[in-house]
Design brief:
The chain is α+β, with helices and mostly antiparallel strands. The protein is about 30% helix and about 20% strand. The chain is built from 19 helices and 27 strands. The chain has a 4-stranded antiparallel β-sheet, with no helix packed on it. Strands 5-6-7-8 form a 4-stranded antiparallel β-sheet, with no helix packed on it. It has a 4-stranded antiparallel β-sheet with strand order 9-10-11-12, with no helix packed on it. A hairpin with a 2-residue loop joins strand 15 (about 180-185) and strand 16 (about 190-195). The two termini are about 55 Å apart.
């Protein structure tokens, strides 16, 4: 930074929204104001507060029944001199607000033939009376602000994420989950540009007419009509080569259902295309290749190799995208004849009763349908084996396809189904892992048949009776990173090839649940790696995190002789100024220690020191660290529920109260709530302690959380005890 250059520093923080903020836009009036939208379903107008150099909330506008995903400002007009605010939501609706009222002027409802039939993802202004919207239903719509849908544009084959208008305020561009940028002129798709990335998340049109797009591969690309700004022939050739080497998963449905045996050969490319962006599939030996017709260049451009093209369709062999997530099934449920149908997403690793219950809650449907919907799910998924969906799927928000320290990315060595705490073991309401036994009964009523809403709610959340662990991993990626960083280690710290083989063996037997015990030599090498410098130690910590659950490893590191050294080293990694990856993996390792008798004994002996150091990490913004901290507290709560140690319970309650003040992530919140419920169950002294800390008032706000439902359900059960 240049000497004397101004630096940005925090000006103010604006609490108000109860859930994460999804969109911000500058407002035309009052000067300096802005608008925010959130998952809490509200839109808020913030105006400058001059005396305090901050902002004051002028309006909290409500109109959506699900979270608000996008916002734009409609310019001023004679009728609305201060302009209007348009918002799009996951309720499929668009709300139009004035600056004078918290209630919407108009609600552009989503229903067939007139409005969007899925989540609205983007808005763009054409004039003071018209705007455009795009949505997960793969349509673009032109609206009048009064609610009349003037025109519908189709072209994309998957979710449309972003829309931006050209300076002429007529033409526009869109980007989508179908790997494409589409340019719309005179109401038609004039050009389709495929990119070597699955998700094209965002776009904007610059003042000079150039188009900027951002994609899931982390690259921003600029496209232009100007000869002066066009890339060199070498750069364009390199881009086309990258595009041709991309792979297109047939399961996305963007290319339709594909049967490779019925596709024509390469001679099919001798025929001229009929329209811009037309896609053609050809068989080249055992491969299936996708080509797109370019009108301007008069040729077919290869856009990738198609994978998974076996003749099966989404329903039988692939994942189906719904609201940005992959599911094995997305059913259409008709509850009333002639009424609207509802989408019910389901994975074969899910519990059908819990899925049915959440479906009815989400759509505000009569609970009398619980048995019927659950039976429908069971009948229509018979014969399916539990297992991970697509282990190679890369989460667009986390980069799940790459190695992330301590992440729960899928692999063939991980447990096949999703536990609500860890993603590791199958979660069945009332199963032994949740500490209750309810075999053969309705998980929501405790009986074999549905009871009315007035019936007693069965508590499936607490007291928790077993430790929660972090189990999942990708051994190949961990070892790859370990070997890469080993090359940067100093000579005295560097591992030999034989050492690396020993670590590979210990990781293999742990992940494969082998009955073989790690050798003393393997454990010595692991300890050597765990003592690497902080900059490179995280893959070794990840191996330790997995290994410590093994009985012999747990005993080796956590026994009375070695335990103090082991815990002291890991606690040193919890330094708030240290590396977040090390903090996270140290916390997760401590959580996994609880599964062994020696580990649990060590954790209890180190409780005061460990929790006092761990709580120092509460102020960061890393949600994974918050989840690990909450899990550590939960595991201590499980132990204290068994022996009623009031001193230990008091420290845990203090940690819960402190962390609840700052944590934002709802999974971390849920684990803290389960810990709280476990601590106060069957203990009047613990109830009084919790009340004295004001925990009851702290958690009331979570009783209204709609998603995930487990947060509000758990909260209400705790409030009943308090």
């Amino acid at each position: 930074m240049a000497s004397g250059a101004a630096r940005y520093r925090l000006s103010c923080s604006l609490p108000g929204h109860e859930l994460d903020v999804r969109g911000l836009v500058c407002c035309l009036y009052p000067p300096g104001a802005f608008v925010s939208v959130s998952r809490d379903r509200t839109t808020r107008l913030w105006v400058p507060d001059s005396p305090n150099r901050g902002f004051t909330e002028m309006h909290c506008m409500s109109g959506h029944s699900n979270f608000v995903s996008c916002v734009c400002i409609i310019p001023s007009s004679d009728m609305y001199p201060h302009g209007l605010i348009a918002t799009g939501g996951n309720d499929h609706n668009i709300c139009i607000f004035s600056l004078e009222s918290p209630a919407p002027l108009y609600v552009l409802k989503g229903h067939k033939n007139t409005g969007h039939e899925d989540c609205v993802r983007g808005l763009a202004i054409l004039s003071e009376t018209e705007f455009l919207s795009c949505a997960n239903d793969a349509s673009i719509r032109r609206w009048q602000i009064t609610g009349e849908c003037l025109e519908v544009f189709y072209g994309h084959t998957n979710y449309i994420y972003s829309i931006s208008v050209f300076p002429n305020c007529k033409d526009f561009v869109t980007t989508a989950e179908d790997r494409s940028l589409r340019i719309w002129k005179h109401g038609e798709c004039a050009q389709t540009i495929r990119l070597p990335a699955q998700s094209i998340w965002c776009c904007c049109v610059l003042d000079n007419g150039d188009i900027v797009v951002g994609a899931s591969d982390g690259i921003i690309r600029v496209f232009t009509e100007s000869e002066d700004r066009t890339a060199s022939a070498e750069e364009i050739k390199a881009f086309e080569r990258e595009l041709s080497q991309a792979t297109i998963d047939s399961k996305t449905g963007d290319l339709g259902d594909i049967n490779a045996e019925q596709l024509p050969g390469r001679e099919h490319l001798n025929e001229t295309g009929t329209r811009e962006g037309q896609t053609r599939l050809i068989r080249d030996g055992e491969k299936v290749e996708a080509y797109q017709w370019s009108v301007s260049e008069g040729r077919w451009i290869k856009i990738g190799d198609v994978v998974g093209s076996s003749g099966a369709n989404q329903q039988t062999s692939g994942k189906v995208l719904y609201e940005g997530k992959e599911f094995d099934y997305v059913f259409s449920i008709d509850v009333n004849e002639g009424g609207p149908s509802y989408k019910l997403p389901y994975n074969i690793t899910d519990d059908p009763w819990l899925t049915a219950y959440n479906f009815l809650q989400k759509n505000d449907l009569n609970p009398m349908f619980l048995d019927q919907v659950a039976k429908f799910i069971i009948d229509n998924t018979k014969g399916q084996m539990l297992g991970l969906g697509n282990p190679s799927f890369s989460d667009p928000f986390t980069g799940g396809g790459r190695y992330v320290p301590g992440s729960s990315s899928g692999s063939s060595n991980t447990l096949p189904a999703a536990d609500p705490f860890t993603g590791g073991g199958r979660y069945v309401p009332g199963s032994a892992s949740m500490g209750t036994t309810m075999a053969g009964v309705d998980p929501f009523t405790g009986n074999s048949a549905y009871q009315s809403a007035a019936s007693k709610t069965v508590n499936i959340y607490f007291p928790k009776k077993e430790a929660v662990t972090f189990d999942q991993a990708n051994p190949t990626q961990i070892l790859g990173k370990l070997k890469e960083l080993n090359g940067t280690a100093s000579e005295e710290k560097k591992l030999t090839e034989d050492d690396l083989v020993l670590l590979e063996k210990i990781l293999s037997l742990i992940c494969n649940n082998s009955s073989e015990k790690p050798t003393a030599q393997q454990l010595q090498i692991l300890w050597k790696a765990v003592n690497w410098p902080e900059d490179i130690v995280f893959p070794a910590l990840d191996i330790l995190r997995l290994s410590i659950k093994h009985p012999s490893v747990n005993e080796n590191f956590c026994n009375e002789k070695e335990g103090a050294r082991f815990s002291s080293h890991l606690i040193s990694l919890l330094n708030p100024k240290g590396k977040p990856a090390n903090q996270l993996l140290a916390l997760r390792t401590f959580c996994n220690c609880f599964v062994g008798q020696a580990g649990q004994k060590l954790m209890m002996s180190q409780r005061e020191s460990l929790l006092s150091h761990a709580i120092e990490l509460k102020s960061g913004s890393n949600k994974n660290i918050h989840i690990a901290l909450a899990t550590l507290t939960l595991n201590y709560s499980v132990c204290f529920h068994k022996d009623h140690n009031i001193e230990g319970k008091a420290q845990c309650l203090s940690v819960i109260s402190t962390v609840l003040e700052v944590v934002q992530d709802l999974e971390a919140t849920f684990r803290l709530l389960v810990a709280l419920g476990t601590l106060i169950s069957d203990d009047s002294n613990a109830v009084q302690l919790a009340k004295s800390l004001g925990v009851d008032s702290q958690i009331k706000k979570y009783a209204s959380v709609s998603e995930p439902a487990k947060v509000s359900e758990c909260c209400r059960l705790i409030l009943n005890l308090l």
